[in-house]
Amino acid sequence: MNKKKFIPGKTKVQYAGAYYDNKEVDAMIKSIKKGWFGVGEKADKFEKEFAQFIGVKNAIVTNSGSSATLLAVAGFGFKPGLEIITPACNFPTSFNPIVQLGLVPVLIDVDLGTYNIKAELIEKAITKKTVALLIPHTLGNPCNMKKIMKIKKKYNLKLIEDNCDALGSTYNNQKTGSFGDVATCSFYPAHHITIGEGGMVYLNSNSRERKIRSLRDWGRACHCKWDQKNPHGACKNRFNFQLGDLPKGYDHRYTYTSIGYNLKPVEFQCAMGLEQLKKLPFFVKKRRQNFTKLYNYFKKFEKYFILPKWEKEAKPSWFSFPLTVKDKAPFSRRDISIYLEDHNIQTRPLFAGNIIRHPAYKNVKYRISGSLKNSDKILLDTFFIGVWPGMDDEQIGYIKKTVNKFFKQLY
Question: Pairing mode, if any, of strands 83-87 and 104-108?
Answer without folding.
Answer: parallel
